[in-house]
Design brief:
The chain has 147 residues and is of the alpha+beta class. The chain has one domain. It is built from one helix and six strands, in the order H-E-E-E-E-E-E. It has a four-stranded antiparallel beta sheet with strand order 3-4-5-6, covered by helices on one side. The chain has a two-stranded antiparallel sheet with strand order 1-2. The chain starts with 13 loop residues before the first helix and ends in an 11-residue tail after the last strand.
Length: 147
C-alpha cells in the first residue's frame, strides 16, 4: 500500500508558459534590432555605391567637354551630363534609400564642387577634393575639399 498523493500532471503551468513567452520575446526583439541596423547599413552602402558611379559619369562627361547638371529638384533623377543620358542619371533619393534631397555646389564647372545627401544621422559626401564618395557617421562635414 502506498501512502501520499498521486499527481497526474497534464499540460503546463502558468509560470512555465509565461517564462517561455518571455524568452521568445527577448530573442525576437534581439533579432529585430539586429536586422534593422543591417538594413540601414545596406541602404547607406547602396547610396554610396550609386553616387560613386555618378562621380565616374561626371568625370567622363567633363572629359568629353560636357557640363555637369545638378540633381533634378534636389531629389535626383535627370541626366548627369548636358550631353545626354549616355552618361547616366543621378540616383534618386527617398523611397527605399532613406536618404533625403541632394545638396550641391551650384557650379560644377569650376573644378571645385561637392554633392551630398543624408538621412538625418549619416551622410554620403562626394567631392572634388578626393573625386570620390565617403560615408560620414554624422550629418556634418561635407565640403569641396573634405573629407
Amino acid at each position: 500500500m502506498k501512502f501520499g498523493l498521486s499527481i497526474n500532471k497534464k499540460g503546463f503551468t502558468l509560470i512555465e508558459l509565461l517564462l517561455t513567452m518571455a524568452i521568445i520575446s527577448i530573442v525576437s526583439g534581439t533579432i529585430l534590432v539586429s536586422v534593422s541596423s543591417h538594413k540601414v547599413r545596406a541602404q547607406e552602402s547602396r547610396m554610396q555605391a550609386q553616387l560613386a558611379g555618378a562621380i565616374q559619369n561626371m568625370v567622363l562627361c567633363r572629359s568629353d567637354d560636357g557640363s555637369i547638371t545638378e540633381p533634378s529638384g534636389g531629389a535626383g533623377g535627370g541626366n548627369i551630363c548636358s550631353l545626354g543620358g549616355g552618361y547616366g542619371s543621378w540616383p534618386t533619393t527617398g523611397g527605399s534609400t532613406g536618404f533625403g534631397n541632394y545638396v550641391s555646389d551650384a557650379d560644377f564647372e569650376d573644378g571645385v564642387w561637392f554633392v551630398y545627401t543624408d538621412d538625418g544621422t549619416a551622410r554620403i559626401c562626394c567631392n572634388s577634393g578626393s573625386n570620390q564618395c565617403h560615408h560620414l557617421p554624422t550629418a556634418t562635414g561635407c565640403t569641396a575639399v573634405s573629407p
